[in-house]
């Protein structure tokens, strides 16, 4: 279960969260909202990649920044940039080394990514970069998977494959999206950002 307790975050231009308390016990959650409403920021906080000014964010009762949770959490978001100097395969090897997992290329094959494993990350097309980002979120079999607009940039075949992969995912899944129509998934809870920020 993911919990935000009295979380505040202010950027120079705006207060994004003000004393937000939010419990997410549901397995499959989709967060909706217009551009700039704070969806990505919420996921970045949940991944421990953005620090709140105040408050605590925990997964299964431990801070998301704990060593144990770093291995349990997977995130794919455009703001999480991939190192460009690796080939895709090198990056996946490195990722699995860091997360102590064995590299299984089945998902890469499902997403139609196999022909691009030897391509340098800097040279990937937008859609293939997205696939690689999704692979880095998924390969270590996280217990909490945070996906920002997971279908953005994917062609039809890859989108179907992604939906199938996510249907089989057994951990907690939190998706941020302004276009849920492209996700053929059922969710236990849909929360508009307006509501999250309104109750904060
Ligand atoms: N590092 C930052 N510094 C200052 N402001 C930021 C920073 N990151 C995000 N913001 C601002 O915070 C607000 C929320 O941004 P965020 O990216 O979380 O929205 P979003 O709902 O994911 O948007 P989109 O649907 O366009 O991806 C925006 O006004 C954005 O400009």
UniProtKB/TrEMBL annotation:
Keywords: ATP-binding, Nucleotide-binding, Transport. Signal peptide: none annotated. GO terms for molecular function: ATP binding; ATP hydrolysis activity. InterPro entries: AAA+_ATPase, ABC_transporter-like_ATP-bd, ABC_Transporter_VariousFunc, P-loop_NTPase. Residues 2-199 form the ABC transporter domain. SUPFAM superfamilies: P-loop containing nucleoside triphosphate hydrolases. SMART domains: AAA. The keyword NADP does not apply. The keyword Isomerase does not apply. PANTHER family: ABC TRANSPORTER ATP-BINDING PROTEIN ALBC-RELATED (PTHR42939:SF1). This is ABC-2 type transport system ATP-binding protein.
């Amino acid at each position: 279960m993911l919990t935000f307790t009295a979380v505040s975050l202010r950027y120079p231009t705006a207060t994004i969260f003000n004393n937000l308390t939010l419990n997410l016990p549901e397995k499959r959650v989709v967060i909706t909202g217009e551009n700039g409403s704070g969806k990505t920021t919420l996921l970045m906080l949940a991944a421990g990649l953005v620090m709140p000014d105040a408050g605590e964010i925990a997964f299964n009762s431990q801070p998301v920044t704990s060593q144990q949770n770093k291995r349990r959490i997977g995130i794919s978001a455009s703001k999480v940039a991939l190192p460009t100097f690796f080939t895709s395969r090198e990056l996946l090897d490195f990722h699995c080394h860091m997360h102590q997992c064995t590299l299984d290329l089945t998902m890469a094959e499902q997403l139609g990514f196999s022909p691009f494993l030897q391509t340098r990350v800097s040279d990937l097309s937008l859609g293939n970069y997205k696939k690689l980002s999704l692979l880095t979120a998924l390969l270590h079999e996280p217990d909490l998977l945070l996906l920002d607009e997971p279908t953005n940039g994917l062609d039809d075949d890859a989108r179907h494959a992604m939906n199938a992969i996510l249907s089989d995912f057994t951990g907690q899944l939190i998706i941020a999206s302004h276009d849920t129509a492209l996700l053929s998934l059922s969710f236990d809870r849909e929360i508009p950002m307006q509501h999250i920020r309104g109750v904060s």
